[in-house]
């Protein structure tokens, strides 16, 4: 039942404040670059730009140097990543979508995993540790 709730509720009711800021920053970045749509690349860069939250904490705890991460032109639309983030949240039995779910959604795309140098399963396990205060 929880899975259906997370997947079916309107996005605006699920987003944490930080996740909402990440989406806003991604839209702003796309606009500033003159792009006609927001992509996974814009979202990844907005998560890094925020420099806070579970996504960033997780990446740092996995040894990622966030200064060296650049957009990698996957061209994957933001809508697709949001669908994947919803699935990740539901899979973790969360009733919200935070930056960690966006990160996991992004890592479902092969190019993102290669750009970050971390895998989906490894990152998902680390997200759980960060959420439980077991990793910093």
TrEMBL record:
The keyword Hydrolase applies. The keyword Repeat applies. GO terms for molecular function: peptidase activity. It comes from the Bacteria. Transmembrane segments: none annotated. Residues 11-136 form the Clp R domain. InterPro entries: Clp_N_dom_sf, Clp_R_N, CLPT1/2. Keywords: Hydrolase, Protease, Repeat. One of its GO terms (biological process) is proteolysis. This is Clp protease N-terminal domain-containing protein. It comes from Nonomuraea marmarensis.
């Amino acid at each position: 039942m929880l899975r259906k709730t997370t997947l079916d509720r309107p996005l605006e009711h699920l987003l944490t404040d930080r996740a909402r800021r990440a989406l806003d920053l991604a839209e702003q970045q796309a606009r500033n670059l003159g792009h006609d749509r927001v992509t996974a690349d814009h979202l990844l860069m907005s998560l890094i730009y925020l420099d806070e939250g579970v996504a960033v904490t997780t990446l740092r705890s996995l040894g990622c140097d966030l200064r060296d991460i650049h957009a990698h032109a996957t061209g994957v639309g933001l809508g697709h990543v949001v669908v994947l983030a919803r699935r990740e949240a539901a899979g973790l039995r969360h009733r919200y979508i935070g930056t960690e779910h966006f990160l996991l959604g992004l890592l479902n795309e092969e190019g993102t995993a290669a750009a970050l140098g971390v895998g989906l399963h490894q990152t998902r396990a680390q997200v759980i540790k960060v959420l439980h205060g077991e990793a910093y």
